[in-house]
Each structure stands twice: as C-alpha cells, then as structure tokens.
C-alpha cells in the first residue's frame, strides 16, 4: 500500500506546500512546532481542505482539486490517533475497541479484535473503564480502536507527547510491534528525534510549511 500526497494550503501569512509518498511502514513528519505537520495530517484525513493538490491512497483518489474530488472523512477509511486517547468515557475498553470495528463492512475488515488485543497487550484491560487507565494504556487502546477500523492509512499525531518518560518507554515497544506487523502506511507526527530515530523508516523533514528534505530514520539518529 502507498499514499501519495501533493497538497498546498494558505491560512493568512502561513503557507503549506508538501509533496511526498508514504509506503508501508512509518513515515514520520518531523520538525519544530508550528511547521504544519498536524495540518498535513488533517488534510489527509479530510477534516481540513487543501486549496489545491491531490491525495491518493493506492488507486483511490481521496482528494483532487482539479477533478473536484473530496471524499468525506468516513469514506477515506483512515485511522487517526491523537495526542490524548479521546476514548469514549462511558464505554469499557472492550467496547471502545469494537466501536469502529462494528461499523466496517465485513468485506473491508483485515484485522480483528483478538489479534489487535494480543498485538497491543490489552488482554487484562478489556473490562476496565477508560478513567482507570494510565496514559500509556489509554493510548494503546486508542491505537487499537483506530486499527480495528481496518484503515487504508493510520495517522498518529504526537501520540506520546502527553506522556512522561516512563509511560513513553512503556508504549514504544508496542509502536514498534505495530510498525512491523501492520501492512499499511503509518504517518507519525513528532518533533522528538529519539522517537523518530527509533520508529521511522522514512522521515519527511518539515519547516515553515515546507519539506526541507526526505531521509531515512537512521539519519535522524546520526544528526
């Protein structure tokens, strides 16, 4: 699977213009705060409309300004994990995980609850309420819920930024396992070099809304 992005957006004096291709594995959008990384994710997800450009997931056109194509977010089949878990507080972990799964057409399901639960080590959490979970546990559940929508693309917007060092260390092995097990493009936003060096197979370096350079994850570690 692959994702081809070539988009531009202007808001006041700030302009975003990026072009890159994300293959299976983790493509990191890396750069300082305010570089436009999260806005790029939002344009891919369909919650922010580019002024012009094209977004294609394999052979499916998600957005094309010239052809006047703009699929609504549900039709894009994109999983989104935010800085905080945003779990449904009134649902158990089990029901949070299966919420999106139940909405996916059977023919489009390529992952199922047992394998996601095992992948993310959630077996002991299934009957718990979100408010009883640690920050790291909540993020693991949020990742599982997004993955169980069988997405074409998985977007992770600074998923570790709200966690302390101990919780980050707890969840990092699960992110590595996710990278190595899930055969869809994953876009990972961060400004933390250590996260990117450990997780990313490809890095899109951004500054002031533009792509500076595209490297591999090892290049961040060497910098």
Helix percentage: 25-40%
The number of distinct β-strands equals 11
* Distance linking N and C termini: 29 Å
CATH superfamily: P-loop containing nucleotide triphosphate hydrolases
- What are the segments in which pLDDT stays under 50 over at least 5 consecutive residues? none
Strand order of the largest sheet: 7-8-9-3-10-11
Query: Regarding CATH, which class?
Result: Alpha Beta
Look at the structure and give the mean pLDDT. 92
Sheet with the most strands, sense and barrel status: 6 strands, mixed
From the 3D structure, determine the CATH topology: Rossmann fold
Q: C-alpha Rg, in Å?
A: 17 Å
Count of alpha and pi helical runs: 8
Into how many domains do the coordinates divide?
Answer: 1
User: Secondary-structure element sequence?
Assistant: EEEHEEEHEHHHEHEHEEH
- In what range is the share of β-strand residues? 25-35%
